[in-house]
């Protein structure tokens, strides 16, 4: 018994000595050559294993000699219970050793490499905040007036022109469609940065969504990832849309949810009613041999319908219309004879129940996000509620509040940095989400125009924290503090929060590129702002100072 305990302690002590966490990281520096360190650790591990075998051999020899002495003194037959106890301690020792060894190898191959990569980047990033040169109020105000306001004055006129043309185009689309067989198109709605007044980067692009519905007697029945059924993590934020007859009681019959035996028949839904010809469902833009709406089929239908509609009304206009991207259903470009052009997106969407949440067929994607799970999975957009929330909260803020100014400056800086060092995983939607969270967290008076500098720092701090934790939650999903005036669906408020930075955990190369870009943006912030700043009296230029985050 004591010998068994001694063996267990020996194995544990050996594993602890062999563990890379024995020496704290604070007392060392990050190794430059990780492969050389790992090779040295493997050699040390081999030597420790040899030493362990030698010690075990010595212990075995001592035990053997002790047994000989005991047998010489007194010959006692070993009972079966003692053998079982001895075997138990031996087996337990081996199990403990194997578990610790597996844990050590996993740490060495995984976290140890991360220590030289991601965590090192975040340590440098934190230091960069403490020493970043941050422009003062006068410089920021001059930059905003010259670079932001000076280039966004024509947005209202552009929105008016695009909306008027889109209404005319959709009216022509309705006239060329077969109302008994084709989808019914509703009026378009403007969403995104152009309609929330914070777009700063050219070219200005208007985003319009177009709800559509199936012809009678059909209807859409949707299902989201938070509706009760289990969805894989990569399908969170998505849903499916089923095309059904309006008189079908899909929710009230289990035949659609349960696999019935070959010799069983649903009395409510006969085979003639449940199985429709494949061509009929494909005409309703469904995926082959299913009742689920196919985003690719919708894109083809919409592009053909837009082309027919333009051919009908093109004689009324003195410009050309073309598709700028064929991977999106309605990425259109108006080209005038003078050579100037205007781009806008006309995207078909499906309404979620009676709310202003929409399933969007194709969503602008960055390198951070993977492809759609399938063409029958539709992304949910809350763009209408986001626009309403900004309008609602703006009524409670001081006059000329700085929330939009902060978002515009941050969007400009990040876009400028990406044009220098290449795209990153951050998007303008992430930046807007940061602003929405801070609008809800900070008191209204904190957004006064004189607090532009402080609020911009808050947004950078918040974004740095989210990057460090790889967590940026969707503003609406899982947020129980959404104002009741918005009429936001309760099912999404009660859902689990959706982490927009979850792909960073899966794609380390994109994460490191994003961190590097953010780090470079902080370093170049003053230079980028001063490049577009008008001359300021000497008394103010000294205001560029080191700001401790």
UniProtKB/TrEMBL annotation:
Q: Which domain of life is it from?
A: Eukaryota
* Keywords, alphabetical: Cell membrane, Coiled coil, Glycoprotein, Membrane, Nucleus, Signal, Transmembrane, Transmembrane helix
Q: Where does this protein come from, organism-wise?
A: Ramphastos sulfuratus
Q: Which GO terms describe its molecular function?
A: protein kinase inhibitor activity
* Subcellular compartments: Cell membrane; Nucleus outer membrane
Q: InterPro entries per the record?
A: ITPRIP-like, Mab-21_HhH/H2TH-like, MAB21L/cGLR
State its role: Enhances Ca(2+)-mediated inhibition of inositol 1,4,5-triphosphate receptor (ITPR) Ca(2+) release.
Q: Does the keyword Ion transport apply?
A: no
**Record's protein name:** Inositol 1,4,5-trisphosphate receptor-interacting protein
**So what family is this one in?**
Belongs to the ITPRIP family.
Where in the sequence is the signal peptide annotated? 1-15
GO annotation, cellular component aspect: nuclear outer membrane; plasma membrane
Query: Where do the coiled-coil regions begin and end?
Result: 38-65
Q: Which PANTHER family match?
A: CELL FATE DETERMINING PROTEIN MAB21-RELATED (PTHR10656), INOSITOL 1,4,5-TRISPHOSPHATE RECEPTOR-INTERACTING PROTEIN (PTHR10656:SF8)
Q: Where is the Mab-21-like HhH/H2TH-like domain?
A: 403-477
Protein's membrane topology: Single-pass type I membrane protein
């Amino acid at each position: 018994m004591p010998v068994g305990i001694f063996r267990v302690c020996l194995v544990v002590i050996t594993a602890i000595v062999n563990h890379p966490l024995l020496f704290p990281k604070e007392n060392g520096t990050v190794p430059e050559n990780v492969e050389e360190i790992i090779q040295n650790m493997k050699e040390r591990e081999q030597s420790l294993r040899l030493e362990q075998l030698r010690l075990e051999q010595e212990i075995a020899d001592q035990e053997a000699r002790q047994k000989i002495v005991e047998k010489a003194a007194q010959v006692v037959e070993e009972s079966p219970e003692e053998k079982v106890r001895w075997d138990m301690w031996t087996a337990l020792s081996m199990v403990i050793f194997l578990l610790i060894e597996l844990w050590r190898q996993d740490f060495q191959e995984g976290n140890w490499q991360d220590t030289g990569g991601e965590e090192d980047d975040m340590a440098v990033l934190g230091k960069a905040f403490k020493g970043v040169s941050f422009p003062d109020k006068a410089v920021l105000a001059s930059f905003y007036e010259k670079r932001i306001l000076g280039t966004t004055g024509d947005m209202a006129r552009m929105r008016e022109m695009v909306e008027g043309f889109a209404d005319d185009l959709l009216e022509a689309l309705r006239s060329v469609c077969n109302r008994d067989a084709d989808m019914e198109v509703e009026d378009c709605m403007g969403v995104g940065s152009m309609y929330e007044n914070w777009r700063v980067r050219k070219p200005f692009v208007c985003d319009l969504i177009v709800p559509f519905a199936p012809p009678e007697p059909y209807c859409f029945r949707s299902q989201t990832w938070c509706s009760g059924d289990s969805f894989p993590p990569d399908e969170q934020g998505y849903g499916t849309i089923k095309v059904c007859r309006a008189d079908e009681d899909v929710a009230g019959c289990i035949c659609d949810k349960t696999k019935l035996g070959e010799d069983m028949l649903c009395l409510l839904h006969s085979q003639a009613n449940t199985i429709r010809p494949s061509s009929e469902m494909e005409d309703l833009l469904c995926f082959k041999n299913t009742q689920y709406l196919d985003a690719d089929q919708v894109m083809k239908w919409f592009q053909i319908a837009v082309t027919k509609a333009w051919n009908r009304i093109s004689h009324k206009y003195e410009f050309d219309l073309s598709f700028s991207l064929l991977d999106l259903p309605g990425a259109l470009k108006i080209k005038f004879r003078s050579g100037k052009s205007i781009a806008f997106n006309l995207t078909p969407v499906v309404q979620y129940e009676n709310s202003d949440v929409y399933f969007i067929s194709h969503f602008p994607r960055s390198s951070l996000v993977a492809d759609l799970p399938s063409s029958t999975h539709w992304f949910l957009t809350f763009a209408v509620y986001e626009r309403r929330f900004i309008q609602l909260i703006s009524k409670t803020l001081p006059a000329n509040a700085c929330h939009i100014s902060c978002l515009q400056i941050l969007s400009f800086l990040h876009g400028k940095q990406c044009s220098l060092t290449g795209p990153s995983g951050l998007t303008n939607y992430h930046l807007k989400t940061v602003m929405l969270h801070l609008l809800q967290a900070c008191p209204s008076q904190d957004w006064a125009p004189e607090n532009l500098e402080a609020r911009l720092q808050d947004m950078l701090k918040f974004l740095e924290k989210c990057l460090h934790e790889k967590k940026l939650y969707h503003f609406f999903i899982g947020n129980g503090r959404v104002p009741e005036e918005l009429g936001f669906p309760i099912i999404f408020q009660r859902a689990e929060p959706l982490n927009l930075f979850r792909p960073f955990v899966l794609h380390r190369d994109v994460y490191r590129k994003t961190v590097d870009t953010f780090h470079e943006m902080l370093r170049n912030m003053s230079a980028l702002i001063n490049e577009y700043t008008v001359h300021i009296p000497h008394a103010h230029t000294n205001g560029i100072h080191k700001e401790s985050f």
